[in-house]
Amino acid sequence: MPNNSNQEKKIHRIRSATQQSDVIMILGGAGLVGLQICRQIARDLSPKLIVIVALYQKEIREALKALRKEFPRVTFDGAWGDIFLRRQLHEKTRTEILKNPARVEELFDDTFEDKKKAFKVSWLVNLVSKFKPHIIIDAINTATAISYQDVYVSSIEIERALRAKTGKKKKNNEITIDQSLQAKIAVLLSNQSIPQLIRHVQLLNDAMVKVGTRMYLKIGTTGTGGMGLNIPYTHSEDKPSAKLMSKTAVAFAHTGLLFLMARTPGSPIVKEIKPAALIGYRKIEFRPIRFHDKSVELYHAKKVKIQDRLNLHPDVGYPRLGELAMVGVDTGENGFFTRGEFETITTMYQMEFVTPEEIAQMVVLEIMGMNTGRDVIAAIDAAVMDPSYRAGILRAPVLEEMRRLEVKNNTPSVALGQLGPPELSKLLYEAYLLKTKYHTLENVVRADAAELCKGIETYILHNSLRHTIVSIGLAILLSDGQTILRGPHLNIPEYRGDYELAVSKLSLDKWARKGWVDLRVENMKLWQDRFRKMRNSRQNFYKLGSAALGRNSYLSDTIEIGEVVGWIFNNDPEIAGFRIKSL
User: Which stretches within 122-178 are classed as H helix?
Assistant: First the structure.
């Protein structure tokens, strides 16, 4: 009894802390799992506001009506539309959009072009910005929504069309692509799963960071309901279906991206519950059967003689007998199954099933901070191999041997530009130039910024190192801010379809900050400020014991270029490139 009493007190404390203080948004909140999560949260947590988001207005209205009646003391709000689309398209179906070339171009831009522009027009970002949720629970089957756009059929159709055109080349060997084929190619490009998923996660994370969301909890999927490659129970597809494997691939790619989100400074707490069974059920009933939102017709069987070829297209001349209706179990987004189908799929050692109530209970317990053992992100976090003590011991002799070879070959080993981000090479070369001319942090801090520019510029203009820098794709912006040293190619700005770009003060600053060696006074002042902070971090190192060693620590008085750039990545708020979990 004492244990139960303590547990109840703990639950009451957590419930009191969340009561009347949180805004909780549930994506997919009108679905089978999402609706039950709404109920469980309203019952156990009683937050200030529960916002449910679903695809269709009708399901939102029905869900809000039921929830408000069941929980009159909880405030509910709702929004509908496709969260993967921009604001002005969110009430349209993807099928409608793909029929309009101009809209397809917008889909492409939102996935592949500038993320900041996509952020401004995103319907999902708009919702997060409007409601500012403290917690987001995502019960949308993202993997299905993205992977079932069927790039396989599109790819086959386009490849065959292009193959046919190669046999009809013009005299100059050019292949002309008509508007129909061009439209199919545009659709195929817009339906690529991984770019869509990446952009979705980026926009969601940026939106949550902007409004201060504390927790993001995803209801994920294994793609096969816990089955392997043997019998995937999905839409009568072959085993293993390429489309189904795409769903699984996207589902676990999503998990991987959430794992990265969980390790990103400033991002919310990230959790994922991944049911590995059929989720059921909503209700049992006799009803007309619908597929893709259309009634399934009951036809009179027609006797046909087998010929040399079998026509897969729907044929005419089949007498209709009305709508097909049957007894079945409604499992929400998973479909409507007959008794025979449900009996088979839930047989022991088949897919079996788990209830939405059990999932909802896990969600609430995770929000309360209890360890359910069902958080996939935590499981991966515990299973991955972290940096080792052995590797730390080996680091010093590796660096020492590289220094010896640098001296022997009279060639500095600074950067090749093949390890990102672009700032890495830029910062390493700038740090190397400061080290070569001034040696210590103190010398740089005490120098006049204009003298720093002059000294380094004189050095670089008379040293062959400039040839190495420009050969790996970096530009060197000289102190006048108008002249650059460059090679035949530039890493920054990145090529995005245009070989010529307009230059402005804003764009110049952006490129220099991102990936050019910058010899202007403003940048030298920035380096002095960094070195001042590094120098100051050493003062209390021996007084504070082990507590003195942290992200802001720099232990040398000399300029060690890799350590310096590592310190910048750890401490520059614009980069925020540090590792959250480091033992």
Answer: 123-131, 142-147, 151-166
